[in-house]
Design a protein that fits this description.
L,D-transpeptidase catalytic domain-like, five-stranded mixed sheet, 12 strands, carboxypeptidase activity, 33% helix, alpha+beta, globular, 233 residues
């Protein structure tokens, strides 16, 4: 086998299935050693492959964080975690210090993991995203993290973040390059849209609704593009 062929093959493997450089710590490693065997059993019992990609979705009014796992050509719900606390009411974050938690479509990459957070373990949601940057929204370091206190973040308690963080870490370790995280004020069906129609955020929420509906139809994470300064799908 020629040296050129081996070089090309190695380059191909790196491109097709690059191994991410994952931030890690003794704390996170100890958590995985304890939590991952239990999660493996749950995944296997529900028919999921351990290394399959994941998708995360949050609904503020239900205090719910959902973890979905790819099964075949669609994603299926694996587990729902109760959010212990998020700051502010419904309506997205727009500026630093407004004590609001963001709503929108975000992407998590390996570098957004924080295994030495002051809030135990943390995952940066990626606020502000491209749409929010165009709108001039300010603020940063918005996390899904442990404990039960938050200023703009989503606090899950230590026990819940152990599982969520481990699922994210293991998905990256298996080769997933990015994880979609979609945050909604509520389930954006007609009943909820009518119920919250008096809220001043409705014009913004209507820009989220097509992304919500597309996932509900396909059970595949959505990719948005920008039309004007808003989401489009």
């Amino acid at each position: 086998m020629s040296r050129l062929f081996l070089t090309l093959l190695f380059s191909y493997l790196i491109i097709v299935n690059p191994r991410p450089n994952l931030p890690d710590s003794k704390r996170a490693g100890d958590v995985r050693a304890t939590v991952w065997p239990r999660l493996q059993r749950e995944l296997n019992d529900k028919g999921f492959k351990e290394g399959a990609p994941i998708y995360i979705r949050i609904f503020k009014d239900q205090d719910a964080l959902e973890v979905w796992k790819k099964a075949g050509n669609k994603y299926k719900l694996f587990k729902t975690y109760e959010i212990c606390y998020y700051s502010g009411s419904l309506g997205t974050k727009t500026k630093k210090g407004d004590n609001k938690s963001p709503e929108g479509f975000y992407t998590i990459s390996p570098k957004q993991l924080n295994p030495v957070s002051n809030y135990y373990l943390a995952i940066n949601v990626g606020y502000p995203n491209k749409v929010e940057q165009l709108k001039g929204y300010t603020g940063d370091a918005i996390m899904v993290h442990g404990h039960c206190a938050s200023i703009g973040c989503y606090a899950m308690t230590d026990a819940r973040i152990e599982e969520i963080y481990t699922l994210v870490y293991k998905a990256f370790e298996a080769g997933q390059q990015k994880i979609n995280l979609d945050i909604f004020p509520f389930r954006m069906d007609k009943a909820h849209m009518d119920f919250y129609s008096h809220q001043p955020y409705m014009a913004f929420w209507k820009t989220l609704k097509p992304g919500y509906e597309k996932f509900e139809k396909t059970h595949m994470p959505v990719t948005y593009y920008i039309k004007g300064n808003d989401y489009a799908f």
